Amino acid sequence: MIKKFEIKSHDGPGRVGKIDGELTPKLFYKKDLKIAPSEGSAHNIDREIAEFNVKETLRLSKENVDTSDIAVIQGSKYLDLRIKCLKELEEMGYNGFIIANGDALLTNPRELVEIIVNLKKEAKKSSYFIFSFAELSFMPILTYMGIDGFLTDSANYYSHINVLQTPTKAYDLNSYPIYENITQEELEEKNIENMEFVIKEIHAHMKNKSLRNLVEERSGTTPQNISTLKILDRTHMDYLLEFTQLF
User: Fold this and answer.
1) Are 47 and 73 in contact (CB under 8 A)?
2) What's the pTM?
3) For the chain, which residues make up each domain, given as ranges?
4) N or C: lower Cβ tally within 10 Å for the chain?
């Protein structure tokens, strides 16, 4: 069930790859994935609970390895548990991973950077990573750090709470009635359309080796976004430069 992931090119740590003939970064629909069961938990919990959930996740993933192509990296806020989970899942044969608690990580820039960068450093080159609840303005910097795809579930979630996602801002339609009398289904379609646009935007910038420009442009959209870029630059410049072209 494992899908082959081929790396075609880099723009910084960001990668253009190919899975089943489709270019990454890409959008992933959960209905098209065979995700191994896992023991989920909140991001900010006691270590003992996080350890138990990692142990259960590994057990469930091993039991379902023959029928699954994606595993979930649990471990809450504990970096060593996240890395342990990744390593043991790779040993089982998995190469596609969803990073759990994506929504919580977006509000904790330091943990977001440390978890993604260190997972990428520890992972095999043939492994690919999917982020679960990315806001559109975060997709460029997540790609820049090495994320290879995004679940479309966030489009459904934001439509459920009547929020329109755009490349630069999330609009609460109760306060900003950009679309009046729009149904939840129509709003979900618009959110997915905007996700697709950002993916195309990212690909165009990666083709032109200008993804960093897009990242810097979007960094001003939220305090969390600019904090993520500042922390990334300050703490992991060696990681950023490894695949960056020198002119």
Assistant:
1) no
2) 0.95
3) 5-241
4) C
